[in-house]
Amino acid sequence: MDFTHLDKPVQFLRGVGPRRGESLQRLGLNTARDVLYHVPRRYDDASSVDRIGELAVGMDATVIGRVRTKGVIPTRARLRIFQAILEDESGRINVSWPGQPWLDQKIRQGDTLLVTGPVKFFHGPQIQPREFVMLDREGDAGSGSEAGARTADPIGHVFVSYPASEEVPQWVLRGVFEKNLDELLESVAHEEYLPQTERTRLGLLGLPEALRALHRPTSLVEIESGRRRLAFDELFFLQLLQAKVRHRDTLERPGIRFERTNALIRPLLERLPFELTGAQAAALREISADMTSERRMNRMLQGDVGAGKTLVALFAMLVAVEAGWQAAMMAPTEILAEQHARKLRQLVEPLGVRVALLTGRLKTAARREVGSEIASGAAHLVVGTHALIQEGVDFARLGLAVVDEQHRFGVKQRMALAEREPSPDLLLMSATPIPRSLAMTLYGDLDLSVLDELPPGRQPIQTFLRGPAGRDDVYGFVRRELEAGRQGYVVYPLVDVSDKVDLRAATEEFERLSGEVFPDRSLGLLHGQMPGEEKDAVMRRFVEGELDLLVATTVIEVGIDVPNATVMVIEHAERFGLSQLHQLRGRVGRGGEASYCILVADAGEVSGERLRVFRDTTDGFEIARADLRIRGQGDLFGAQQSGHDPNLRFADLTRDEGILIESQRMARAIVDDDPEMRATRYDAVRRILLHRHAERLAFWKIG
Ligand code: ADP
Ligand code: MG
Fold first, then answer.
1. pLDDT per residue over 555-607, tens digit each?
2. Dihedrals φ, ψ of 319, to 5°?
3. Number of domains the chain contains
4. Among the four 181, 383, 489, 666, which has the fewest Cβ within 10 Å?
5. Tens of pLDDT along 604-633?
6. What's the pTM value of the predicted model, to 2 decimals?
7. Which residues have C-beta under 5 Å from ligand 2, the single-atom ion?
8. Residues 276-309: pLDDT tens digits?
């Protein structure tokens, strides 16, 4: 297979040359392939294009016409208006751009424009465009007669508009495609890697057909088919990359084959005061299957706050301990590690399982003692912070490593816990519910278990939305909760840790709240720029009930459990993502008392859809789906720190879950069959993978 044609510099395309080549490069189009994949940003179906002769005042119109005359007219109010008379075969209309006289330099007589906007009445009907696109320029070498004919007769056509620039206007791009598209499509046909049978099964177009559909669609339906095929490509190669990482992490390194005895698991199940949820039981079956097999487990356990991940992790750890191994659980903060250790001890010390706690707070002597318990194997379960991955911590026989709140650790730190011989199994946990499609895209190298069910009998948190005018009532409400002996949180946004203005706002509010609003209560302040020990100290005072009200930026620990906290006020709620709000809200409602979350937001947002969705839903996965839908996937990727940058252009994770699942299945099947993809039938796939993902292959050290 030859990539050379599509990889040649853009200046060698017909009608381009060195000068235009440079302008195209400034638009980000360096090679012929870049041009081929530079697909339109906007489509107008001929059926949605109005005939000029049939326009009426009050309509929102989309028309295509040729500029018959044009010019700038001054008005008495010194406003200069650019006007053009647009004409199609049915009639003419005045199009008017107030305050944009410079358009006179851009638009020429004879240009063909697509214009959208309302039809108004000023000395006769006129359109005031919201948007316009120049489709063709008369007499330009770039627009062939074919394009002219198309403009004259729009029936059965879809009008395309490309992302263009000042330097490379629409009609230039259209000219480039007129002259080169057929040949580019012939070249890309050599890169087809999906056999016809697979394409048929998946209902996908061939690669050249898909790109043709995007550049020269004859219907809007065709555009969607083209997009789906390119979306599949994007997802498939990403999954292939991740399948290779997964293969390396789970198969190339020998795993431990744990023998299940149930010696600890059965008595623990009998001691539990409740039944496992269906989701917990299912996750445990998946984990147990991994642990008892040859393969090394590399699994992500996703579940909403309170879904019971810790208990699932405990069972997994007991599978290891029963079989004579140690298990470790790493948490991002000392408070969280201490909390885990306390809970685990309650559950398993009666069964004779020894739980050790290793954090940075330990004094040298105590630390040495814990260290030797870990090294001798006397400690069966070891809970700790980053201290676990520090130099000098030696496990006797580490069989399973669990990482809680995994997103709080870097890729390297997560791996460090499991980097020893033989390789311990790895269970990563995340309390950020994300839609399955997003999880598969970000963590395709891991296997995924999802706890999508909360234990029964939880008191739902009541959520209220208030405008700034309601703040005094909100304080009154908080006061009543505090007087009843409960605790609460007031949260301020701190979008960026370096944002001094926000930080001052939180600090000043803390002073105002403690000085004026709640002078008789003890308040604490928690923000991201405090040193770690100070943060821990404040948090600990809150956990122990010494503080009534915690004023905090978003650093409040995910996973921290203060059952007595029943009210949370979130200020400037409009500045948070929905998933982030959900994480925050999860700090209350952890005890038996009714709990409340009050969002204080801009008056405008109070009536908007976004915060209402949040107010009315407590299911984290549903909120995450709404967040994905409302904010778009770009933002969500930005929020994840991981070694992948999926950077999807065509795939839409709210709609493409089906093809995502297929792409993962296919990618994993190929890697299981032939990890290096040496067989000739994988030639195309291997070369495209190398070509597209060279940098990531290097990042993950897989070739
Ligand atoms: P997560 O880590 O997923 O946020 P936890 O593991 O901390 O959640 O569990 C939250 C609470 O729910 C704990 O108090 C735990 O004992 C309790 N819990 C866990 N599983 C169940 C269950 N199946 N039924 C009832 N309560 C449960
Ligand atoms: Mg947890």
1. 666 657 788 999 999 999 988 888 889 888 988 988 888 999 999 998 777 77
2. -60, -40
3. 4
4. 181
5. 777 778 899 999 998 888 998 888 888 777
6. 0.79
7. 559
8. 999 999 999 999 999 999 889 999 999 988 899 9
**pLDDT category, 641, cuts 50, 70, 90?**
very low
Question: Cis peptide before 422, with omega less than 30 degrees from 0?
Answer: yes
When the pLDDT of each residue in the chain is averaged and rounded to a whole number, the result is 87
The CATH number that applies at residue 620 is 3.40.50.300
Backbone dihedral region of 58: left (phi > 0), alpha (psi from -120 to 50 degrees) or beta?
left
**What is the atom index within ligand 1 of the atom nearest the CA of 310?**
6
pLDDT in tens, 14-28: 999 999 999 999 999
Is residue 442 in a domain?
Answer: yes
CA atoms within 13 A on the CB side of 385: 16
Instruction: Report the share of the chain in percent with pLDDT over 70.
Output: 92
Q: Is residue 698 part of a domain?
A: no
Nearest CA to ligand 1 atom 25: 455
Ligand 1 atom having least distance to the Cα of 343:
16
Query: Which of residues 565, 600, 631 is at a domain's end?
Result: 631
620's tokens: 């984290």
**Rounded distance between C-alpha atoms, residue 674 and residue 291, angstroms:** 24
DSSP 530: S
Residues 90 and 134 in one domain: yes
Which ligand is in closest contact with the Cα of 342? 1
Q: Is 683 contained in some domain?
A: no
Does residue 102 line the site of ligand 1, with CB under 6 A? no
List, in order, residues 6 or more apart from 28 with CB less than 8 Å away. Answer: 34
Note the pLDDT of residue 252: 75
Q: Is the CB of 430 under 6 A from ligand 1?
A: no
Show the tokens assigned to 490: 């007031």
Question: Which residues does 344 contact at the CB level (< 8 Å), separation at least 6?
Answer: 310, 314, 329, 355, 381, 383
Residues 331 and 440 in one domain: yes
* Domain ranges, residue 24: 1-41+173-191
Q: How far is the CA of 307 from the centre of ligand 1 (A)?
A: 6
Residues 315, 439 share a domain: yes
- DSSP readout, 114-154? EEEEEEEESSSEEE--SEEEEEE-TT-TTS-HHHHHHHH--
- Please state, in angstroms and as integers, the Cα–Cα distance from residue 51 to each residue in 111, 122, 152, following that order: 18, 20, 12
Residue linked to tokens 């029964």: 456
Beta strand pairing status for 549-552 and 487-491? parallel
Buried b (16+ CB within 10 A) or exposed e, 628-665: beeeebeebbeebeeebebebebbebeebeebbebbbe
303 C-beta closer than 6 A to ligand 1? yes
Q: Is the CB of 431 under 6 A from ligand 1?
A: yes
Ligand nearest the Cα of residue 303 is 1
Residue 451 CA: nearest ligand 1 atom is: 3
